[in-house]
Write a structure and sequence with these properties.
2 strands; single chain; mainly alpha; Helix Hairpins; two-stranded antiparallel ribbon; about 65% helix; flat
């Protein structure tokens, strides 16, 4: 009879580790199943396909849900810290990949929420050893953190502008020209300020057209502001990761990441022993 402890250890190696042949095979198979389930959900959203194969697609989807449920329970079983896995990013995503299938029993359209399984494809970074790509993503996260306060101030300023412009347009144009309320005017101001311009509501009076032109010019003036803020913070984040190592010759203590020679004196940072 197999020792339960050794069974859990073997399952742990297969399910959680990607450095073994069995682990890589398991993860690649899982990714293929996730991809297949996404294709089924997408096909089911096409009306012609749904009408002709609704029962078949529902059965296939229940099969995928059963597989993912078994996988989730297996991960809980063999994990050394089940609660830690359950509340981790991947653990929550794994759970969310199952819940819509169960909710679909009571609310049929909930099955389309299964598209959240696409997030599970992030495991491809672990399977294909794309850790460097995740490292580069850290630069984006650092830039977002650094620019958070500036972007919040920018969004508050823009929100104030669209509220003022929307209210003015409501007063100038009125319900007879489609501006039936202040929220409707704010909607128009947002669409115009962002240079989207749906054209479903347009000013008809000369004064309204002048205000509309002002809003458009303002939109072109400020649309690049958040991009500039984020780009500056991204550059700071990339410059921030520097090699902290004293040059043995000139003693400069900060160098570009991955540098082998000092940028000041040109001598090797790590001389051969």
């Amino acid at each position: 009879m197999n020792n339960p402890a050794s069974l859990r250890e073997r399952l742990y190696v297969i399910v959680f580790q990607t450095d073994t042949v069995a682990g890589r095979r398991f993860d690649k198979t899982l990714l293929l199943i996730i991809l297949a389930s996404l294709i089924v959900v997408i096909l089911d959203s096409i009306n012609e396909v749904h009408q002709g194969y609704a029962g078949l697609l529902a059965g296939i989807e229940w099969g995928f849900t059963a597989i993912f449920l078994a996988e989730y329970l297996t991960r809980l079983y063999c994990s050394p810290k089940p609660l830690r896995y359950a509340f981790s990013f991947y653990g929550l995503v794994d759970l969310l990949a199952i819940v819509p299938g169960i909710i679909a029993l009571y609310y049929s359209d909930a099955q389309y929420l299964l598209i959240i399984r696409v997030i599970r494809m992030l495991r491809i970074f672990r399977v294909l050893k794309l850790g460097q790509y995740l490292k580069q993503a850290n630069y984006l996260l650092e830039a977002l953190r650094g620019s958070k306060q500036k972007i919040i101030v920018f969004l508050v300023s823009v929100s104030t502008l669209v509220t003022v412009f929307g209210t003015l347009m409501y007063v100038i144009e009125g319900p007879e020209h489609g501006f039936t309320s202040i929220p409707k005017g704010i909607y128009w101001a947002i669409v115009t300020l962002t240079t989207v311009g749906f054209g479903d509501i347009v000013p008809k009076t000369p004064l309204g057209q002048v205000l509309s032109s002002l809003v458009m010019i303002t939109g072109y003036s400020i649309i690049a502001v958040p991009t500039g803020i984020f780009t500056a913070e991204l550059a700071n984040a990339m410059r921030g990761e520097r090699l902290q190592h004293d040059c043995p010759t000139c003693h400069k203590n900060s160098h570009e990441h991955g540098a082998a020679f000092c940028s000041r004196c040109g001598n090797a940072l790590f001389p051969k022993q």
